[in-house]
Specification:
Blueprint: H1 2-6, H2 10-29, H3 38-60, H4 68-84, H5 96-107, H6 120-141, H7 145-170, H8 195-218, H9 225-249, H10 252-270, H11 276-307, H12 310-323, H13 334-341, H14 358-389, H15 399-412, H16 422-444, H17 446-451
Helix pairs in contact: 2-3, 2-6, 2-7, 2-16, 3-6, 4-6, 4-14, 6-16, 7-8, 7-16, 8-9, 8-10, 8-15, 10-11, 10-15, 12-14, 14-16, 15-16
Length: 459
């Protein structure tokens, strides 16, 4: 891996540097889903030349193409807010929710926005919020596998830096410069406004180090013993720090997802072990861990349904979404629409910023197009999983943990809103690019398609 990383050509070095810069900017400045300051604006501006650079590389490609499903998913995500900003035909009312809102506004002499979205400024901001993720996806996709693995270690380093900042915040006053969001009490949040999102990044880091840890433990002989020892030490340190800190963030979902994700990586990565006994042991251990995690998840869902506001909040959001079907209320319009149409029992002294379920909120804001995009994303993930599994174990060492980390964040999105933060959206884009690149290679290279049936020689 070291030789491959050092042997990067000039274009790959630029891609790695730009991707790393955008990821650092996103994590350091984009930890809030509501507050977009100067750092996020600079991030979005920096993504524009990066996207132009990616398009230039794509046009210079000799033959081949990007994975069609992932390409269609990106284009569909960008198209939704742009379509919602189009003018609406005069007198055309597309939903009952919009008609009722129009009647209410007419009583005070206010006209409804003459666009498909009820919140044009928020929808425009939602489009620009996607640009850094698009740039990172393109940059990482063009990286060779060695550079992609180096980038994964960079994401792990960012997670540890955020954790260190969170530890320091606990001993500092609320108005300290260590707290990037002084309006909130320090709570192990690190670069994030919400400690649950700090937990999400820790889950990603723990998942990513599980695969190299298993690889290092499987290889007991041959050159590189010192390097394997360093990998084991760093991976164990990251896992211990993540497992220790996750309960302190207050995220029950983070703890459960971390156990599930790490066990899944160990089990799947261990399936490539040469020894049958070792393979059975790894699979057994991962199965037990996954079973315990699923049991804990079921218990946690019962607590969530009884003791928290999230379950009725999601139900109310679904009811409102049905009133704005099929086109949705507009990207970024959730706060205003929910306050307008929430049932009396949901009216509180503080406003509801998100539905705490990405998929339900997408349904409200984008309607039927959101369902189509989610189905397209599920197809892209299913195709990628099948293609990656056809690769030999050593060639999916980066894609496998990246794929499982994607699933963990998507799972967390059922009870939270991690993808509403620029930081985690950027990290997800990098993980998705690694998955898409590996799946694309497995599907386009004849040797890759046959390699799963051939024995793997020892290095």
């Amino acid at each position: 891996m070291q030789d491959e990383t050092l042997a990067l050509d000039g274009r790959s070095r630029i891609n790695l540097a730009l991707a790393g810069l955008l990821l650092v900017m996103a994590v350091v400045t984009g930890g809030s889903s509501q507050q977009a300051g100067t750092g996020v604006m600079l991030l979005q501006l920096a993504s524009l030349p990066a996207i132009a650079w990616v398009i230039g590389q794509r046009l210079a490609m000799q033959g081949g193409r990007w994975p069609p499903l992932w390409t269609a998913l990106i284009l569909a995500l960008l198209a939704i807010p742009l379509l919602q900003l189009l003018p609406m035909p005069a007198g055309f009312v597309m939903s009952d929710g919009r008609a009722l809102l129009q009647q209410d506004l007419a009583q005070v002499g206010v006209a409804l926005p003459a666009r498909w979205t009820l919140a044009p400024d928020a929808t425009r901001a939602s489009f620009f919020a996607l640009l850094p993720a698009v740039a990172i996806f393109g940059l990482v996709f063009f990286l060779p596998s060695g550079a992609q693995r180096a980038l994964l270690w960079g994401i792990v380093a960012l997670a540890m830096a955020s954790l260190l900042l969170g530890i320091l915040q606990l001993g500092a006053p609320q108005e300290s410069a260590l707290n990037p969001y002084p309006q909130w009490q320090p709570a192990m949040s690190g670069f994030f406004a919400n400690p649950n999102h700090q937990a999400t990044l820790l889950v990603i880091a723990a998942t990513l180090v599980s695969a190299p840890l298993v690889s290092a433990l499987k290889t007991t002989a041959g050159p590189g013993a010192r390097r394997r020892g360093v990998t084991i030490a760093i991976s164990v340190f990251v896992l211990l720090m993540a497992m220790t800190a996750l309960p302190l963030t207050g995220s029950r979902a983070g703890v459960i997802l971390c156990v599930l994700a790490c066990a899944l990586v160990v089990g799947l990565h261990g399936a490539g072990s040469r020894g049958a006994n070792r393979r059975r042991l790894l699979l057994l251990a991962s199965t037990v861990a996954v079973s315990l995690g699923l049991f804990a998840a079921l218990r946690w869902m019962q607590v969530d349904a009884v003791d928290e506001l999230r379950s009725p909040l999601r139900a109310a959001t679904v009811d409102i979404a049905m009133g704005h079907a099929p086109a949705g209320s507009g990207m970024g319009s959730y706060v205003g629409v929910f306050e307008q149409e929430a049932p009396p029992a949901m009216l509180m002294g503080s406003y509801v910023n998100h539905a705490h379920n990405e998929y339900v909120q997408w349904l409200l804001e984008a309607g039927l197009p959101a369902l189509l995009v989610m189905a397209l994303g599920a197809c892209a993930l299913a195709w990628s999983a099948r293609a990656i599994w056809r690769l030999p174990a050593h060639r999916r060492s980066a894609a496998l943990p990246a794929f499982v980390a994607l699933l963990a964040v998507l799972g967390h999105s059922f009870v939270d809103y991690p993808l509403r933060t620029p930081a985690l959206l950027a990290v997800m884009a990098a993980l998705a690019a690694i998955v898409a690149k590996a799946a694309h290679a497995a599907g386009t290279t004849p040797a890759a398609r046959r390699s799963h049936t051939l024995p793997i020689k020892a290095p």
